[in-house]
C-alpha cells in the first residue's frame, strides 16, 4: 500500500501561550481528529488534505482534495454524519471530554449550508408574500438551525420546528400568523 499524501494546515495564532485554555483544547481536538482521519485515509488508500480550524467555539476539520472523498460523504451526507460521530468518539476517547467538532468532507457540508440558507430565505419570502405557512421537508437539527437562522434575517417571517425525530421539519410563517407546536 502506498502512503497517503496528506497535508495538514492549522489556522491558529503564532503564539499559542497567549491563547485561552478553551482555544487550546479545541486545537487539541482538531489535532486528534486529524490524526484519526489520517489513519483512516491510509487504511483506505485515499488522498486528501486536512484543514484544522476553530470556528464558532468548535473544532472544525475539513477533508478535501482526493478524488475518492465523495465516497466518505455518501447519500445525503449519511456516511459523513457517521464519520463525524466516529471522529468525535475518537477525540472523546483521548481527551475524556465530549467533542462537538464539525467535520466536512469534499466541502459537502459547506455547500449544504449555503443551499439550506437559500431554502430558508425563499420559504420566508414565500410565507410573507402569500400570508401562508410553508412546511419544509424533514431535516437534521444542524440543517434546521441553518434554515431558522436564515428566516430570522427576513422581516415579517418567523419559523418553528414541528414533528418528531427523525421526521422533524421547519415551518415558516408570516410574523402575523399564530404559532403552532
Helicity level: 40-55%
- Count the helices. How many? 4
Structural class: alpha/beta
Number of strands: 7
Notes on the protein architecture:
With 181 residues, the chain is of the alpha/beta class. It has four helices and seven strands. A four-stranded mixed beta sheet has the order 1-2-3-4, with helices on both faces. Strands 5-7-6 form a three-stranded antiparallel beta sheet. Mean pLDDT is 88; it is low at 1-19.
List keywords for this structure.
181 residues; elongated; 4 helices; alpha/beta; disordered N terminus; 4-stranded mixed β-sheet
What's a quick, concise take on this entry?
The protein is an alpha/beta fold and 181 residues long. 42% of the residues lie in helices and 23% in strands.
List the helices and strands and how they pair.
Blueprint: E1 6-10, H1 21-44, E2 48-55, E3 58-64, H2 78-95, E4 102-105, H3 108-130, E5 134-138, H4 141-151, E6 157-162, E7 169-174
Parallel strand pairs: 1-2, 3-4
Antiparallel strand pairs: 2-3, 5-7, 6-7
Amino acid at each position: 500500500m502506498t502512503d497517503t499524501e496528506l497535508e495538514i494546515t492549522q489556522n491558529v495564532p503564532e503564539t499559542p501561550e497567549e491563547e485561552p485554555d478553551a482555544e487550546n483544547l479545541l486545537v487539541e481536538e482538531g489535532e486528534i481528529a486529524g490524526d484519526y482521519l489520517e489513519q483512516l485515509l491510509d487504511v483506505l488508500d485515499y488522498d486528501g488534505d486536512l484543514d484544522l480550524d476553530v470556528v464558532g467555539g468548535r473544532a472544525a476539520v475539513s477533508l478535501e482534495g482526493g478524488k475518492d472523498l465523495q465516497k466518505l460523504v455518501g447519500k445525503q451526507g449519511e456516511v459523513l454524519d457517521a464519520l463525524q460521530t466516529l471522529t468525535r468518539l475518537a477525540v472523546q476517547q483521548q481527551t475524556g471530554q465530549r467533542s462537538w467538532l464539525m467535520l466536512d468532507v469534499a466541502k459537502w457540508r459547506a455547500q449544504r449550508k449555503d443551499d439550506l440558507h437559500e431554502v430558508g430565505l425563499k420559504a420566508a419570502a414565500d410565507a410573507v408574500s402569500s400570508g401562508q405557512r410553508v412546511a419544509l421537508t424533514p431535516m437534521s437539527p444542524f440543517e434546521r438551525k441553518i434554515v431558522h437562522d436564515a428566516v430570522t434575517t427576513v422581516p415579517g417571517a418567523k419559523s418553528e420546528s414541528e414533528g418528531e425525530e427523525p421526521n422533524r421539519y421547519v415551518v415558516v410563517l408570516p410574523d402575523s400568523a399564530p404559532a403552532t407546536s
